[in-house]
Amino acid sequence: MAKFIFTCSNGYEKHLSDELVSKDFRLLDILPGFVLTVRDDKFVSGVKDLCFPHFCMIFPQLIEGGSVNSLGKEIAERFFNINRDREFDGPWHFLSGFDPEVKGLGKRESAVAEQALVNLKRIAGKVARLAETDLPAQAERQNGLFLYFSDFGKVWLSTEFVWFGQRRVSDDPAAPSRSYLKVEEAYRVFGAEPESGDTVCDLGAAPGGWSYSAAKRGAKVTAVDNGELKGGARDNANIRRLSADAFTFEPDRKYDWLFCDMVEHPNMVTKLLEKWIEKGWCRNFIVNLKFGRTDPVELITKLSSPQSLLKKRCLYFDIKHLYHDREEITLLGRLE
User: Fold this and answer.
1) What strand order describes the sheet that includes 282-290?
2) 179-334 has which fold?
3) Which of 10, 57, 67, 152 could form an SS bridge with 158, CB 3.0 to 4.6 Å?
4) Residue 136 has what DSSP assignment?
């Protein structure tokens, strides 16, 4: 059996734990934003299919110490010894996280991480100079260094980890709603976004956060909603608003992108998405499902089943709980 630590958005540990249990993990400890588990290490190859984790630490080790200097020294030495025979010929990622409910732990995290780099420079200067503290360009398995601070004197260290692609994005003053942040983040997980000249249909568009996001990139947007658009989406030259019901609207063309972020039961939205797929009305989609009182793990299991239309028809399909998602999950798909 091998240990794994999964991190998630604070407050969603129960959903993450339930998802892990459904994948035959055994839970060892649950903290805010953190779940420690064990399972057969063969799972590593399929880890990216999970929805709620933001990071997975593979084979983590616990380091305990009383001071910033002692922790930083131990981290640097542990990292160097694990990688003693590894050839560093390019940048590697040095990332960290912490329990958000422990007051002042963020400052401790920054200080220890900085001290670890100082010590690593003494041991292996060339390796330390190649360290990057920014998130990777793509969600993937990494060989680098990930630290998770569960308390002032407890740091979990892993030199192999998986990043699932979630990240905080910057707001735009012209964006008419907070939902703008979700679709901006979704592009980064997807690895694609609407481009100039692309066609986008945004179902249930009002007040227009997703429509505005596509329009600012030069895409031509059809915003379908009986409600009015606001902010940068209102009177936007790249947005054509249609006063219509999203569930009965039928397009007269094939769109490059389908957007949908409506406060409706997830089964209703899923059926609407399946209709668009069966009719061949879109090439790519980003769809948000509000799970509310619905069991999200059951929903994810159903959607990701090999028998699911989404799995059968999509060349690429993923389900993620984004950094900017709340009681919702985001479906990402490419049909051709």
Assistant:
1) 239-242, 220-224, 199-203, 255-261, 282-290, 328-334, 316-320
2) Rossmann fold (3.40.50)
3) 57
4) P
Domain 2-163: which topology? VC0802-like (3.30.2130)
**CA dist., res. 91 & res. 273, Å (int):** 41
The residue ranges of every structural domain in the chain are 2-163, 179-334
CB burial string 259-274: b at 16+ within 10 A, e below: bbbbeeebeebbebbe
Q: In Å, how far from its chain's centre is CA 130?
A: 26
pTM over 0.90: yes
Q: What is the pLDDT of residues 34-91, one digit of tens each?
A: 999 998 766 666 677 899 999 999 999 999 988 999 999 999 999 999 998 888 889 9
Would you list the DSSP string of 166-206? -------TT-SSTHHHHHHHHHHHHT----TT-EEEEET-T
Question: How many CA within 13 A on the CB side of residue 166?
Answer: 22
* Interior angle at CA 76, CA 71 and CA 78, nearest 5: 90
Phi first, then psi: what are they for 324, rounded to 5°?
-90, 0
- How far apart CA 105 and CA 321 sit, in angstroms, is 25
CA–CA separation, 25 and 174 (whole Å): 44
**107: annotated active-site residue:** no
pLDDT in tens, 142-189: 899 999 999 999 999 999 999 999 999 999 999 999 999 999 999 999
CA–CA separation, 195 and 213 (whole Å): 11
Contact 200, 259 (CB under 8 A): yes
Active-site annotation holder among 290, 302, 311, 320? 290
Give strand pairing partners of 26: 38
In angstroms, rounded to a whole number, what is the distance separating the alpha carbons of residues 203 and 123? Answer: 56
